Amino acid sequence: MKNTEREQVWQERIAQLQASGLSQRAYAIEQGFPVRQVGYWVRRLTAEQAVPALLPVRVTSVAAPALAISLRSERGWTLTLPSDVPANWLAELKKAL
Question: Between the CA of residue 97 and those of 8, 70, 77, what are the distances in Å?
């Protein structure tokens, strides 16, 4: 039997296996095939069919959201400042509060 004929025979057998709902082991025992041979053909034939799908991707730049610094006091007030506030000014503000 040529390789292409053997592959065709096993394609039919694997289709029967999948239609049967049996495990590879149960199918191999029921049909009188070596369990390892059934596993080999399942891997070989399903690997050929499993072509990784490549999808087109477009990368765009997204503006980063403006970050903010929030100061909350024990008295309940909140002060929200932009993130680009100079650190020394923020330190002076904290001292004053």
Answer: 82, 14, 12
Which residues does 46 contact at the CB level (< 8 Å), separation at least 6?
14
**Residue 71 CA to its chain's centroid (Å):** 39
Please tell me whether residue 49 adopts helix, strand or coil conformation: helix
CA distance 60 to 53: 22
What value does the mean pLDDT of the chain take? 86
* C-alpha dihedral, 72 to 73 to 77 to 78, nearest 10°: -20
Q: Give the global pTM.
A: 0.49
